[in-house]
Write a structure and sequence with these properties.
The protein has about 210 residues and is of the alpha+beta class. It folds into 2 domains: about 10-65; about 85-200, Mannose-Binding Protein A, subunit A (Mannose-Binding Protein A, Chain A). It is built from 5 helices and 9 strands. The chain has helices at about 1-5, 10-65, 100-110, 120-130, 195-205, and strands at about 85, 90-95, 115, 135-140, 150, 165, 170-175, 175-180, 185-195. Strands 1, 2, 3, 4, 5, 6, 7, 8 and 9 form a 9-stranded mixed sheet that branches. The chain starts with a helix and ends with a helix. About 15% of the residues are buried.
Length: about 210
């Protein structure tokens, strides 16, 4: 009887319970480790993205801080006084009256300027285009034909353009730059840096 009892097949319900437990164990072993790995991966990705966003934010702030002031909105911009013409970083005044070279330079200095100086061929070509057909004194002079040309800001002329003639004071004409005696009456051009350029160092280095 005992042998018969041991050999009796298990009820279907007990077999189902046993099979269910085995399947549950397999599922737990297969699912949970994989889910944990995926979860850790998500955490790592989130941390990396957070670090990248913070780094980009800091870099952007630093870049904006280092940008020139001209790109920032504000009250600082390039302006010229009334009756002056702006070109690049300078303002130019073209007279209607005619006087000698010394008077012309004194007039410009009273306006906190000098007889016109040009730093490039672009500036010179602008002056030639705008002056029309008249001759204008500019800010170059020399003591004699044996001396070098000097600018009204007390720097030596860089010989960007050859000055024609053997006189002491330079003027702008249709052909380029020529020279004449100081007392010759001509119109004149004053030049000075625009208001923005003078304020630039204070803007870029506040305080």
């Amino acid at each position: 009887m005992c042998m018969l009892k041991r050999d009796l097949p298990m009820p279907d319900s007990l077999q189902e319970v046993k099979i269910g437990k085995e399947l549950q164990g397999k599922c737990l072993r297969n699912v949970f480790p994989e889910s944990t790995v995926k979860l850790y991966c998500c955490y790592i990705v989130i941390m990396i993205l957070t670090i990248v966003v913070i780094a980009l934010s800091v870099a952007l702030k630093s870049l904006l801080k280092d940008l020139p002031a001209v790109s920032r909105p504000g009250p600082y911009f390039s302006t010229c006084p009334n009756d002056w013409i702006g070109f690049g970083s300078k303002c130019f005044y073209f007279s209607e009256d005619v006087r000698n070279w010394t008077f012309s330079q004194t007039y410009c200095m009273a306006l906190e300027a000098h007889l016109a100086l040009f730093d490039s061929l672009e500036e010179l070509n602008f002056l030639k285009r705008y002056k029309g057909t008249s001759d204008y004194w500019i800010g170059l002079y020399r003591e004699s034909p044996d001396h070098a040309w000097t600018s009204t800001d007390n720097t030596e002329y860089n010989n960007l353009v050859l000055i024609q003639g053997s006189r002491e004071c330079a003027y702008l004409n249709d052909g380029g730059i020529s020279s004449a005696k100081e007392y010759t009456p001509k119109k004149w051009i004053c030049s000075k840096y625009s208001r923005y350029t003078l304020q630039c160092p204070e803007i870029l280095n506040p305080g």
